[in-house]
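Dear support,

I submitted the protein below through the web form. The confirmation email said the job was done, but the results page showed an empty box. After a refresh the structure appeared. I'm attaching both so you can tell me whether what I see now is the final result or a partial one.
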Amino acid sequence: MGDSRLIIFDTTLRDGEQAPGFSMNTSEKLRLARQLQTLGVDVLEVGFPIASSDDAEAVRLIASEITGPVIAGLARCNRADIECAAEAIKAAERSRIHTFIATSDLHLDRKLRISREECLEAVIENVTLARTFTDDVEFSAEDATRTDLDFLCQIVETAIAHGATTVNLPDTVGYCTPDEIEHFFTDVIGRVPNSDRAVFSAHCHDDLGLAVANSLAAVRAGCQQVECTINGVGERAGNASLEEIVMVMRVRHDRMPYTTGIETTALFGTSQLLSELTGERVQANKAIVGRNAFAHEAGIHQDGVIKDRRTYEIMLPGDIGATSHLVLGKHSGRHALKKRYEEIGFELSRFEIDRAYRAMIDLADLQKTIEDADLVSIVEQIRAEQSAGAA
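What the results page shows now:
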C-alpha cells in the first residue's frame, strides 16, 4: 500500500453546530472558520444555507473571507436548497455544493414517503442542477449503510454519471462495525462501473463509539476523504473526531500510510477555541485533546515519564500544540514530587522530600489534586518546624 494523501472534510460548522448546545452566532462561526483555515483542513462545510437566513449569511461571510479550503454548503436534493446553497457559496475562491437524499427503504417509506424511482429521479435532476453552479459537487446517500446494496450502487452510478465528483456514503446512525464498513465500501467501489470517476468519502457517527475506527476502515477500503469534526462533536453521540483520525495517521503511519494537510500543532488550540465558543468542555479523558491525555498521576507512570517520555507517551504533547504535565495527587510518587519542587524553584533534601511526600498524601485525601501553592505551604511548614526544632 503506497503512501497517499487523505482529504480532510471538516463539518464542525455544519453537523457539529447542529448538536444541542453547540450553536454559534455568525461572528463565532467566522472565528472558528479562520482557525480551521490555519489548521489546514481541505474542505470546510460551513452550513446549511436553506435552514435559516442566519445560516445563509454565515456561509456567505465565510465564503467571502476564507481562502485555502474548499467552502461547502449543504443542500437537500431539491431546487430551492441547491439554488440557496449556490448563492451562499458563490463568493468562495473554491466552492462545493454538497447535496443529499436518503436512500434506505426505511427513510424513503417513513420519512420522505417517496419510491425508489422518485429518489433516483431526484438524484438525476439535482446533481445535474448543482453542476450548473460549480464543477465540485458532492452527493451523499443518507443512511447509505442501511440501504439495499443493489439500489445503492444504482444511485451511486447515476450520481457520478450526472456530475458528482465526490460520493459520500454515511453511516448516518453509527450502526456499523469496522469490518462491515470495509466490506461495504469495497463492494460499492468494486461494483459501480464508473467509481474511478469520483472520490469516495466516509461520514461516520459515533453512536456505538466506532466512528473513528469505521472511518479508518473506510480509508482502507478505498475512501480518499473522511468527514469529521473537532472534538468529535455532532448530532447525538457526535462524529468521527478529526484530531484522532489525523494523529492515527501520524503515530501509526506503519499501519495507516496516509498523509494529511493538517498542521497538527494547531489541534489543541482549535479544540480549546471550540470549547470557548460553545461553552462545552471536552471530557477530561478525551483522546488527543482531553486535559488528561498527557497528564500522569500514578507514581509508576510518573517515574517512567521522568526517565523517558516514551514509556507512557506514544506522541509528544508538542505535536498537537499541548504540554505534558505530572498531576500530583494520592497516586503520585516521590520522584514526581521532587521534580515539581525543582520546577517551582525548591531544592529539597531527602528528609524534606519524605516529609513533604507524607504531607502531600494526607492533603490529597482531602482534595483531588495538589496545586503549586499547596507545595509551597508544605515546604514552608516543614522548614519552619525545622527552624523551631533547631532553636
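Response: this is the final, complete result; the empty box was a page-load delay. The mean pLDDT is 93.
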